[in-house]
């Protein structure tokens, strides 16, 4: 019979088990609480093993016994340690002296698992078995694991019913004795060192990942498929495997699958059904789920090279555009966003309409990125959609649209850019002005000249005016030069300060145009008496002469 | 520092096992005056004494499937596999659990231990025989083998039978569930396979004996369990660890799952199949892979098990079925399971043959297919495992006794243990076990197998003797 002290120690150990069950479930292994509770358990066991060799616990449904003394009792369904062990068939656990702290932690970790989920493939017994503890042994009642208890005796009885009766058994004996063929010697070669070496090679090969092999088999199955059901299943399997490999960051395997499906989708000499299904599978793979996994890789600090990610995305179906746009809004790293944007340029070329939907995204930066993508794609059809986006509330988006207008050009663009010149935000006006200059059409020139000629133009801030003259100088034609020459020479009595500013801007513009014919004109106003004008005229002359 | 010391001791411990194994093998063939035996003894003496210097005393203990040196498990690699395997079996056969060298040993001490060890195999109580002979040797002591789990109260045969029947019941249950589209958990499968792994290690012959019973009504379920057992037993010989054995056992249990789509009237058809029926049968690997991939989200288990379900009827040369377009190497586990599957299938009166072959003939047929349909390396290990007369083979002895093979002998493959069921006078008896290595006073073998019997022809079963 164990003494009181011993029993109390066992009770304390059980109490620590219960405490660790809660702590280890909640915190990661390096958390100080986990470290402390493991240390406490280990210390308690060490203390116990100084008294005796082993600690053997008998498990009942609601009780745990130590040498027939109850050390734990609970009638609850939840948090009942006895029931936790009992329901999986554990009937006895023995801890022996020599138990290491590492094994102690692993044991506590096992008992802290939540086995209630349907997807769990393990129970406390399978985990204990897998750990193969040297100093923790257990006894299990296997009767609990299958429903039918009497299969074995029933099966044996059935076999015996059908098996030979005494007479036929003795007939077998007689027949064999008289006529049975003699034993044919079977030559068995002994195992050699070479066999072991070959086996070692097999082991090495077997450690390689098997997903690639499954992919090969899936393609064989795909080509062997006959029914709609088969094709539907295969569609799901391919998507499942891509999901699985992306979860493990094996992007090459995923790309391999997509490349092969893309090949099959267009291959000659293959049935229409296969081609159709290959396409369907590609669509099925290009989903939000897969793209989100890609997002995890992109933002997760993976060492996968950009090129590999690009190769994967390039193979996706256009259905991937929408989820990629959504992902764009979620990605945390600028580099990741840049990569997705580049990929959208490639995929968007195949289907711009899906891309256009991204213009309605609530996040300004997503919209701006989509406009950037449309700019890079360079399809003028995008302009019609961008016109609406010009009304976006965010300046950064508007500026991007204006930039796109400048690059894409087209009929509707000039009027919109002209309208932007009326925008109260000079950033917008300036951007529109720049793009009008980039477009370079005569119509664009007229819009700017008209603005400069407007009566209230002179009242604008100097820098604003300067921007107009800077842009108009891009045309460099006679009309513009004469227009500038007129302004440079223009003198007024009223509002002279503003007039000097206009003249200075015009001189600046002539300087940028660089036409030497206007050097005499400029020289005439070199010493006009206004510091600003003198400065800009001098600079224009210097610039034209320097052009020489 | 400590790690280096541990590694060094482990290396010495492996040397000890290798030397002991080599010496026992040599001594079983040659007498003590033989040069190889003398030099082997010297080497063992040297290794033991070297260990005694560093460790004080040397306790070599067998626990479960592992050897321990003074309570530390001796880790070994593939190159030591055969020696470790041999030694484990020889120790178990003699119920020898520990050999303790308490002080420096001499040539004579080791010689006496080896002699006691070898002669004990002819004794009814082998351990007692060794213990008695070693009682006069001061420096060497022996202890009896202990089981890991204290199951004295449980009958081992009953446990093995229970495990086997659990496996068959579970397989039937899972097939019904998959057919009904119900959710399937692998928890139970893992438990069952884990039990089978333990028993393969501890009671391999009993479990192989269960696989040798052919119960015609439950063939489909039983076949899966048999293939699982045979695969795990083979896997153990190939040196797979516990985790790998469990994986292998699980994969094997599910390898034929595609048969759920084969109509029962075909599966249970008493006559041979016509071409159309064969066409359906040949689809089961495809269906199996589909069923396993549909069973759960893609994970390590579904990846591996689907590969095996798809490949298990593809031959080593990639002939077989399903017909594949690309060339790839068959998975290692697929090739193991394929060998086990062949063996169980051709020794059972079911789908692939209506005329089951006796085990020894089955091996002969398999050898004819080595290198073409079956992997030659794996087959070689398999045949070395089951022996010339696998467990369950019904044999006639030169003494006119009839019995079945109930235990193999790794050293003398032609001389397994036989459970005699009809005596030399033609009377039925209740299973007496005889060892064919037993010799008479002239040194001649007392019994030898001269004929094998086709048990299916006479509806003979070994079931009742395994209860």
Protein described:
The complex is a heterodimer of chains A (548) and B (467). By secondary structure, chain A is mainly alpha-helical. Among the domains of chain A are: 4-145, no CATH class; 208-323; 440-548, Leucine-rich Repeat Variant (Alpha Horseshoe), CATH 1.25.10. In chain A, 65% of the residues lie in helices and 5% in strands. Chain A has helices at 4-26, 32-49, 81-86, 101-112, 124-131, 151-162, 166-179, 193-206, 211-224, 228-247, 251-266, 272-285, 288-299, 306-314, 321-330, 334-348, 352-356, 364-377, 382-389, 395-408, 411-420, 426-439, 442-453, 462-472, 478-489, 496-513, 519-524, 531-547, and strands at 54-59, 63-66, 69-73, 90-96, 136-140. In chain A, a hairpin with a 3-residue loop joins strand 1 and strand 2 (63-66). The longest helix of chain A is centred in the N-terminal third of the chain and has 23 residues, at 4-26. Chain A is elongated. The N and C termini of chain A lie far apart (114 Å). With 467 residues, chain B is α+β, with helices and mostly antiparallel strands. Chain B folds into 3 domains: 2-144, no CATH class; 156-386, Hypothetical protein af1432 (Orthogonal Bundle); 394-466. Chain B contains 16 helices and 10 strands. The model of chain B is unreliable at 148-154 (pLDDT under 50). Chains A and B meet through helix 5, strand 5, helix 6, helix 7 and helix 8 of A and helix 6, helix 7, helix 9, helix 12 and helix 13 of B.
């Amino acid at each position: 019979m164990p003494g009181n002290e011993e029993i109390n120690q066992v009770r304390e150990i059980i109490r620590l088990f219960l405490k660790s069950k809660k702590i280890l479930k909640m915190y990661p292994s390096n958390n100080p609480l986990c470290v402390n509770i493991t240390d406490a358990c280990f210390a308690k066991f060490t203390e116990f093993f100084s008294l005796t060799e082993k600690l053997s616990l008998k498990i009942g449904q609601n009780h745990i016994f130590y040498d027939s003394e109850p050390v734990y009792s609970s009638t609850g369904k939840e948090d009942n340690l006895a029931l936790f062990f009992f329901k999986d068939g554990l009937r006895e656990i023995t801890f022996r002296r020599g138990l290491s702290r590492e094994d102690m932690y692993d044991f506590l970790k096992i008992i802290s698992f939540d086995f209630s989920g349907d997807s769990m493939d393990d129970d406390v017994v399978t985990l204990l078995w897998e750990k193969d503890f040297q100093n923790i042994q257990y006894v299990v009642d296997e009767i609990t694991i299958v429903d039918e208890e009497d299969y074995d005796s029933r099966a044996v009885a059935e076999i015996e019913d059908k098996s030979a009766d005494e007479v036929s058994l003795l007939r077998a004996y007689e027949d064999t004795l008289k006529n049975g063929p003699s034993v044919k010697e079977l030559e068995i070669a002994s195992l050699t060192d070479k066999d072991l070496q070959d086996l070692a090679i097999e082991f090495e090969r077997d450690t390689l990942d098997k997903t690639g092999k499954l992919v090969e088999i899936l393609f064989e199955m795909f080509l062997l498929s006959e029914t709609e059901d088969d094709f539907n299943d295969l569609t799901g399997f391919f998507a499942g495997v891509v999901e699985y490999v992306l979860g493990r960051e094996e992007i090459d395997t995923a790309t391999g699958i997509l490349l092969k499906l893309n090949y099959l989708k267009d291959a000659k000499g293959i049935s229409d059904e296969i081609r159709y299904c290959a396409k369907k599978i590609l669509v099925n793979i290009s989903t939000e789920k897969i793209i989100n996994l890609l997002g995890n890789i992109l933002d997760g600090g993976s060492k996968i090279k950009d090129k590999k990610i690009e190769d994967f995305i390039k193979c996706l179906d256009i259905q991937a555009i929408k989820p990629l746009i959504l992902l764009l809004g979620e990605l945390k790293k600028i580099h990741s966003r840049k990569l997705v944007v580049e990929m959208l340029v490639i995929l968007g070329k195949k289907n711009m309409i899906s891309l256009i939907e991204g213009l309605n995204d609530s996040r300004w930066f997503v919209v701006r990125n989509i406009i950037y993508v449309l700019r890079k794609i360079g399809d003028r059809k995008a302009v019609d959609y961008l016109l609406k986006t010009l009304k976006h509330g965010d300046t950064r988006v508007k500026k991007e649209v204006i930039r796109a207008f400048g690059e894409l050009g087209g009929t509707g663009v000039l009027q919109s850019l002209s309208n932007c010149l009326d925008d109260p935000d000079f950033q917008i006006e300036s951007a529109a002005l720049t793009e009008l200059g980039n477009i370079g059409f005569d119509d664009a020139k007229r819009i700017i000249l008209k603005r400069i000629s407007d009566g209230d133009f002179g009242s604008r801030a100097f820098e604003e005016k300067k921007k107009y003259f800077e842009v108009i100088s891009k045309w460099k034609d006679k009309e513009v030069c004469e227009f500038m020459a007129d302004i440079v020479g223009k003198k007024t009595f009223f509002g002279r300060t503003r007039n000097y500013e206009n003249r200075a801007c015009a001189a600046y513009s002539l300087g940028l145009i660089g036409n030497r014919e206007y050097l005499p004109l400029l020289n005439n106003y070199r010493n006009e008496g206004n510091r600003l004008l003198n400065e800009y005229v001098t600079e224009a002359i210097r610039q034209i002469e320097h052009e020489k | 520092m400590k790690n280096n010391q541990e590694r060094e001791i482990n290396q010495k411990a492996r040397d000890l096992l290798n030397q002991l194994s080599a010496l026992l093998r040599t001594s079983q063939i040659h007498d003590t005056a033989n040069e190889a035996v003398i030099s082997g003894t010297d080497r063992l003496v040297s290794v033991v004494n070297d260990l005694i210097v560093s460790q004080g005393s040397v306790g070599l203990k067998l626990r479960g499937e592992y050897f321990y040196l003074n309570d530390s498990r001796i880790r070994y690699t593939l190159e030591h596999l055969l020696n470790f395997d041999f030694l484990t079996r020889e120790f178990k056969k003699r119920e020898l659990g520990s050999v303790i060298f308490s002080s420096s040993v001499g040539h004579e001490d080791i010689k006496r231990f080896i002699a006691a060890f070898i002669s004990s195999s002819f004794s009814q109580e082998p351990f007692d025989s060794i213990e008695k002979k070693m009682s006069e040797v001061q420096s060497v002591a022996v202890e009896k083998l202990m089981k890991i789990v204290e199951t004295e109260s449980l009958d081992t045969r009953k446990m093995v039978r229970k495990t086997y029947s659990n496996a068959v019941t579970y397989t039937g249950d899972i097939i019904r569930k998959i057919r009904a589209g119900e959710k399937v958990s692998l928890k139970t499968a893992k438990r069952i396979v884990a039990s089978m792994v333990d028993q393969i290690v501890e009671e391999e012959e009993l479990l192989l004996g269960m696989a040798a019973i052919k119960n015609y009504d439950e063939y489909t379920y039983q076949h899966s369990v048999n293939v699982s057992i045979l695969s795990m037993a083979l896997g153990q010989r190939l040196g797979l660890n516990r985790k790998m054995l469990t994986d292998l056992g699980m994969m094997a249990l599910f390898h034929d799952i595609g048969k759920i789509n084969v109509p029962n009237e075909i599966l249970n058809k008493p006559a041979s199949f016509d071409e159309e029926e064969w066409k359906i049968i040949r689809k089961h690997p495809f269906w199996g892979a589909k069923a396993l991939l549909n069973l759960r989200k893609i994970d390590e288990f579904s990846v591996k098990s689907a590969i095996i379900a798809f490949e298990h009827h593809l031959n080593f040369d990639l002939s077989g079925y399903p017909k594949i377009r690309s060339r790839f190497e068959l998975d290692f586990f697929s090739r193991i399971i394929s060998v086990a599957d062949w063996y169980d299938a051709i020794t059972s009166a079911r789908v692939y043959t209506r005329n089951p072959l006796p085990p020894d003939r089955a091996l002969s047929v398999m050898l004819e297919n080595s290198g073409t349909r079956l992997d030659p390396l794996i087959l070689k290990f398999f045949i070395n495992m089951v022996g010339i007369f696998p467990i369950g083979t019904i044999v006639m002895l030169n003494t006119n006794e009839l019995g079945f093979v109930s235990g193999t002998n790794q050293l003398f493959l032609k001389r397994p243990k036989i459970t005699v069921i009809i005596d030399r006078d033609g009377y039925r008896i209740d299973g007496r076990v005889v060892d064919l290595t037993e010799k008479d006073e002239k040194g001649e073998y007392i019994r030898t197998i001269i004929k094998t019997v086709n048990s299916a022809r006479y509806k003979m079963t070994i079931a009742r003797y395994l209860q």
